[in-house]
UniProtKB/TrEMBL annotation:
<keyword id="KW-0966">Cell projection</keyword>
<dbReference type="GO" id="GO:0007155">
    <property type="term" value="P:cell adhesion"/>
</dbReference>
<keyword id="KW-1015">Disulfide bond</keyword>
<keyword id="KW-0677">Repeat</keyword>
<feature type="domain" description="Ig-like">
    <location>
        <begin position="103"/>
        <end position="212"/>
    </location>
</feature>
<keyword id="KW-0472">Membrane</keyword>
<dbReference type="InterPro" id="IPR051116">
    <property type="entry name" value="Surface_Rcpt/Adhesion_Mol"/>
</dbReference>
<dbReference type="InterPro" id="IPR003599">
    <property type="entry name" value="Ig_sub"/>
</dbReference>
<protein>
    <recommendedName>
        <fullName>CD166 antigen</fullName>
    </recommendedName>
</protein>
<dbReference type="GO" id="GO:0002250">
    <property type="term" value="P:adaptive immune response"/>
</dbReference>
<dbReference type="GO" id="GO:0030424">
    <property type="term" value="C:axon"/>
</dbReference>
<keyword id="KW-0325">Glycoprotein</keyword>
<dbReference type="InterPro" id="IPR013162">
    <property type="entry name" value="CD80_C2-set"/>
</dbReference>
<keyword id="KW-0391">Immunity</keyword>
<dbReference type="Pfam" id="PF13927">
    <property type="entry name" value="Ig_3"/>
</dbReference>
<dbReference type="Pfam" id="PF08205">
    <property type="entry name" value="C2-set_2"/>
</dbReference>
<dbReference type="GO" id="GO:0030425">
    <property type="term" value="C:dendrite"/>
</dbReference>
Length: 560
């Protein structure tokens, strides 16, 4: 055994060992020698140096052949340090009278290779103790120790959960150790992403050191504990015509590859992979969908609503009606949730729904009933009503003396659909100064006008004709020299009615005054007649006869 407190040289495996002779060189030195001691204490001399002849001799020791070097100050160097060099070496200085000795202890250290985790398990299964792998650190001296870690924490042995077995093998030729530590481990589900590593602890010339392996993550297999069904869709809502993809997944590892899908209306589950696709779904696809493992042990469900939107427009398409007729219009909506409805006429949004109790020309046009379903992207319906309002031509003629007093403007106001064609004819002398000009045809109405300078009274005829009827209206126009009542050229229906009412009122007043004058005359004549009559009763009868004759004559004159 090595004595404590002796001078020690620490060397690294493969480097040069340098051992100074720690003795003072005495006077009368004859030579110096180095030896090492065998385990049984017997010496083995390895180097000699004479102080007088300055020559060096190395003993024939196979382990140190061509490895030794002894300097003038008796420092011994050994190249390519080996584990076998770990001995007690002695420096000897010899004189004629004395022999001095000083021992030196040599310690050799070798850093192991970086540990590796070999023979790794392909995967780990929960609730099962199995070999995870072996941590191997090679060529260490002295022998090291191996420790296992999980996520940076030391794994301590636990019966039937963590079982660690360390083996140390020495290479007899080199004296180096190889440490092999096997780890048996029972994983849990939480170990799915755990990092396992091992660290070898060894001693070097400067003290204790460690080297860590690369971490390893194992695929941990565990059974499915929960099944989940999902609806894969690009939109948050589903409408008729969409495709539905159902995905079923289990939280086990590896995940299940087959499932049973339960579809509304189907009594048995449909075996499929983890996805099930339905194409062009209809509203009857609304309902609860389920999926389970093939052994029906676990199940999950979800509810799918297939949104729909129906629009019924009555009437629709192209509809032809006569002016003044009634036309009930209804736009009926059937939907899976509240829908927004609005009307458009000729590209302009309407404020209210159309209602026709008495059709007018301005009611004609293209009507669109459009509806959208709130919060359902892309679900929109629309239907169109093309309303045609037909009417026979209606004519109203007016005349106006122009400001120059040299001509008159005659206007033919025409209503009707399809648009009537207008022709003019004139009876009597007078020329038509210009060709007829027509205003824009709007809401079934337009006007045709001519300018004329009549030399005498003439009659102008306006003829309006469409596919329904031919209408003719004439207007007497006095000669330009004769003043007459001029009617305004442009007036709407309300103004026309007001003018007609005023004319009727004037005629009524004139007729009333004439009748009053006639009654007064008759009364006065009867009074004179009665005063001349001798016999009251006879005269009365005669008077009545004469009165009747006079009234007939007066009536005849009035008619004339």
């Amino acid at each position: 055994p090595l004595a404590l407190g002796l001078y020690t040289v620490n060397a690294v495996y493969g480097d040069t060992i340098t051992m100074p002779c720690r003795l003072e060189v005495p006077d009368g030195l004859m030579f110096g020698k180095w030896k090492y001691e065998m385990p049984n204490g017997s010496p083995v001399f390895i180097a000699f140096r004479s102080s007088t002849k300055k020559n060096v001799q190395y003993d024939d020791v196979p382990d140190y052949k061509d490895r030794l070097s002894l300097s003038e100050n008796y420092t011994l160097s050994i190249k390519n340090a080996r584990i076998s060099d770990e001995k007690r070496f002695v420096c000897m200085l010899v004189t004629e009278d004395d022999v001095s000795e000083e021992p030196t202890i040599v310690k050799v250290f070798k850093q192991p290779s970086q540990p590796e985790i070999l023979h790794q398990a392909d995967f780990l299964e929960t609730e099962k103790l199995q070999m995870l792998g072996e941590c191997v650190a090679r060529d260490s001296y002295p022998e090291g120790n191996v420790t296992w870690y999980k996520n940076g924490r030391v794994l301590q042995p636990v019966e039937e959960v963590v079982v660690i077995n360390l083996q140390k093998i020495v290479d007899k030729s080199t004296g180096l150790f190889t440490m092999t530590s096997s780890l048996q481990y029972m994983p849990t589900k939480e170990d799915a992403n755990a990092k396992f590593s091992c660290i070898v602890t060894y001693y070097g010339p400067s003290g204790q050191k460690t080297i860590q392996s690369e971490p390893v993550v194992f695929d941990v297999h565990y059974p499915t504990e929960k099944v989940t069904i999902q609806v894969l869709s690009q939109s948050t809502t589903i409408k008729e015509g969409d495709n539905i993809t159902l995905k079923c997944s289990g939280n086990g590892n590896p995940p299940p590859q087959e499932f049973l899908f339960y579809i509304p209306g189907e009594t048995e589950g449909i075996r499929s992979s983890d996805t099930y696709v339905m194409i062009d779904v209809r509203r009857n696809a609304t309902g609860e969908y389920k999926c389970s493992l093939t052994d029906k042990s676990m199940m999950d469900a979800t509810t799918i609503t297939v949104h729909y939107l129906d629009l019924q427009l009555t009437p629709s398409g192209e509809v032809t009606k006569q002016i003044g007729e009634a036309l009930p219009v209804s736009c009926t909506i059937s939907s899976s949730r509240n829908a927004t409805v609005f009307w458009i006429k000729d590209n302009t949004r309407m404020q209210t729904s159309p209602s026709f109790s008495s059709l007018q020309y301005q009611d004609a046009g293209n009507y669109i009933c459009e509806t959208t379903l709130q919060e359902v992207e892309g679900l929109k319906k629309r239907k169109t009503l093309k309303l045609i309002v037909e009417g026979k031509p209606q004519i109203k003629m007016t005349k106006k003396t122009n400001t120059n007093k040299m001509s008159k403007t005659i206007v033919c106001h025409v209503e009707g659909f399809p648009k009537p064609a207008v022709q003019w004819t004139v009876t009597g002398s007078g020329s038509i100064i210009n060709k007829a000009k027509e205003t824009k045809y709007v809401n079934g109405k337009f006007s045709s006008k001519i300018v004329i300078a009549p030399e005498e009274n003439v009659t102008l005829t306006c003829i309006a004709e469409n596919q329904l009827e031919r209408t003719v209206t004439s207007l007497n126009v006095s000669a330009i020299s004769i003043p007459e009542y001029d009617e305004p050229e442009d007036r709407n229906d309300d103004n026309s009615e007001k003018v007609n009412d005023q004319a009727k009122l004037i005629v009524g007043i004139v007729v009333g005054l004439l009748l009053a004058a006639l009654v007064a005359g008759v009364v006065y004549w009867l009074y004179v007649k009665k005063s001349k009559t001798a016999s009251k009763h006879v005269d009365k009868d005669l008077g009545n006869i004469e009165e009747n004759k006079k009234l007939e004559e007066n009536n005849h004159k009035s008619e004339t």
